[in-house]
Amino acid sequence: MATITQDPAYEFPPYKSLENATLIDRIEAVRKQLGAELMILGHHYQQDEVVALSDLRGDSYQLSQMAASSSDCRHIVFCGVHFMAETADILANRPDKLAERDGTRVNVILPDLAAGCSMADMAGIEQVEAAWEDLGEVIDTNDITPVTYINSAASLKAFCGRHGGIVCTSSNAAAVLEWAFARTGRVLFFPDQHLGRNTALKMGITNDQMPVWDPHDDDLGGNTSDALQRSKVVLWKGHCSVHQMFRPEHVHQFREKFPGIQILVHPECPQEVNDLADLSGSTGFIIKTVEAANPGSTWAIGTELHLVNRLKAEHPEQEIHFLSPVVCMCATMYRINLAHLCWSLENLAAGTPVNVIEVDAETTKWSLVALERMLQVK
Ligand code: SF4
After folding, report:
1. Among the atoms of ligand 1, which is closest to the Cα of residue 192?
2. The CATH number of the domain where 295 resides is what?
3. How many angstroms is it from 43 CA to the middle of ligand 1?
4. Which of 52, 72, 96, 340 has the greatest number of C-beta atoms within 10 Å?
5. What is the pLDDT of residues 125-173, one digit of tens each?
6. How far is ligand 1, taken at its centre, from the CA of residue 123, in Å?
7. What lines the ligand 1 site, CB under 6 Å?
8. C-alpha angle 351/355/359, rounded to 5°?
9. 130: burial class by Cβ within 10 Å (0-12, 13-18, 19+)?
10. In a shared domain, residues 97 and 138
């Protein structure tokens, strides 16, 4: 479990009324004061004004790893969502790193505690433990590898560590599934059914071999014993509320309007969208694909709005469209604004850190086991 420290003298409201220019000046003043001890991490889905003030920009695992490898860093302010701050805490305060710093912890701060992830929230540890027990009634759990997407609570990563399982990202999901199938006949994949399904389909596993486990259905997650015994991948009934919004009709509309357009999507999008797309891959893959494309290429991209808008701004030589008529942005990540950033930084500089995310030692230990297994997978 992650513990959270909040200043008892909670003084956020006055920050809301400040102009952006004032907030930026005050944030820059703290950056100058704390120097290399402070790292502000800006996730790709973050709003531009926050990214502009970040020391590093990237996806969640990349950012955590980069911050954890810095020998000067003592404070990480993670402009992302809750599970990302947990991962940063696990990596930055793992035992070998703590020993190098004579036991001094790196403070990991999430500027707004309400910045959660709807996908991560769809798989609670009690639900996963109950599912494991229920699955054990019809399948030998020694023949199941639990795989959690990195977009999950630390408690789930620890569950995987304890049960011979592993963590995956959207860029290494196929290699992780191969690793799992070299050990067991089946996988329990959580919390994102779409990443699990899209990845396994490319490996030749059929939908018939991928029953969906509904944690709200007490009767074997809504499955028959037969279906579970036939399974290769049991998919958790979770999804990303942002990527779930992209629909096949959006692909058809763009193809009709812009003949020759290339459709590039994230594997958190539903199968019907992935099947129609020209290319599908992680955030890093999407960025690299656009960077490497010939000038004048036309794209419709199905991923978070802020990232697509930033790609548009940074690549005027390409014609980039957002693959949806509706606004698909990560509303929880959007909660991290300049006011929250300034408030958390000024408290940090004053020696009264707020919103500190600290994962307990036992959860850290087992999460690291699952994360280390992932690092062994090439
Ligand atoms: S984009 Fe989706 S998966 Fe990513 S943080 Fe937001 S809700 Fe979670």
Report:
1. 3
2. 3.40.50.10800
3. 11
4. 340
5. 999 999 999 999 999 999 999 999 999 999 999 999 999 999 999 999 9
6. 14
7. 45, 81, 117-119, 151, 240-242, 304, 330, 332-333
8. 110
9. middle
10. no
